[in-house]
Structure formats: C-alpha cells, structure tokens
Amino acid sequence: MLRVVLAEDAVLLRAGLVELLDRSGHQVVAAVGDATALARAVEEHRPDIVLTDVRMPPGFRDEGLRAALELRSRHDRLPVLVLSQYVATAYATQLLGGGPGTGGLGYLLKDRVGEVSEFMDSLGRVAAGQTVIDPEVVRVLLAQRTASRPLNRLTPREREVLAVMAEGRTNQSIAHRLNITEASVVKHAGNIFMKLDLDPAEGNRRVLAVLAHLRGERE
C-alpha cells in the first residue's frame, strides 16, 4: 500500500483518481486542488509518493510542476509522478533533466490513467525509485531529433529499442514489448550507446542519458 498525496484541480478527475487508488489498495492521505495546498499536504503527511497535475491554480501554467520540483529540493527521496493533459516536452525535460532529488520520477499523459493496469504499474515503479516517461512524449522527442546525424546512424530496430528504453523499461520488458530476446536487447542497447556516445549506465542514469541526448543534441 502506498500513501499518496494527490493534487488535481479538476474535481471530477480528482475524485476518480481517489477512487481508483483506493480500489487498487493504496491510501490517498490528502487530495488537494492547488499547488499551495500540495506543499502543505506533503509537509503534514510525508507521503510515499506525490501524484500531481502540471497545471494548477491560480495561473494554470506550470504551478504543479514547480511545486513538485520545490518539494524534491526539500525532500530528496520523494517520488513524484506528474500528469499532463498534453505532450509538453519542455515540462518533461524540466522535470526529468537532472533536477533536485534522487527519488523516482514520472511524466505521464492523463489519457494513460484510463489504462488502469499500465497506470498503476507506472505509479508503483516511480514509488520504487524508477523513472517513467509516457511513450507519446518519447515518440515526440524522437521525432524532433530524427534529422540529427547521430540518430540517423541507428537502424530501425535500434530506434524502436531506444524509444522503449527511454520509457524506463528493463531489458526484459523491452524484449517482451518488441517480441525479441533479452540477448538481442542487450546487443541493440550496446550499439545505441556506442553510436550516440552515451554512458551505458544502468537504471535511471541510462534513461536520463537518453533524454539528455534527445533534447540536447545539435548538428
């Protein structure tokens, strides 16, 4: 069971998330509608994970994201899963791009909530310290960089492996998704990191290295 602080300004969605989390065996210790209340709830309840919308009152811009980053600067190991209505790669890279904190991080589109098993799996992975990125965000990042010279070095299969890898998946999960062997994944991953000149570190460092390349590579 995870103790969750939930921040979502849309009343119906907030109530739906509370019910979903409750039915899945978790406890929502606070459900709030703005970034200020989110900060207070975390200080009061010290949850296992924070689940927050990006856009919150009063400005409905990035208040939830900024609150999450501030909370991680004060609570180093606090896992945070951010939900967004739209693909906003700037928000994703701001959250995942080496900011403060060492706890798990996630950035998902709200549509992913409807895929209950996948959503709950992502919640659990973030709470366990992993990095989770929405597949659509990964797809957009890859599309933005397909013209870059290093990415053109990759074979079609290597690009598929890179896309799933950037979601924070293990080699076993990548193999299952693409219907290939784990040995093939290891081989493709090695080729990817060699061609892109990336550090082949395991775990979240590997994911963040991929993201750093996708958002920062230049001709």
UniProtKB/TrEMBL annotation:
List the SUPFAM superfamilies hit by this protein, alphabetically.
Answer: CheY-like
What UniProt keywords apply to this chain's record, in alphabetical order?
A: DNA-binding, Phosphoprotein, Transcription, Transcription regulation
Q: Which GO terms describe its molecular function?
A: DNA binding
Q: Does the keyword Glycoprotein apply?
A: no
Q: Which PROSITE patterns match?
A: HTH_LUXR_1, HTH_LUXR_2, RESPONSE_REGULATORY
Q: Name one GO biological process term.
A: phosphorelay signal transduction system
Q: What is this protein called?
A: DNA-binding response regulator
Q: Which species is listed as the source? A: Streptomyces koyangensis
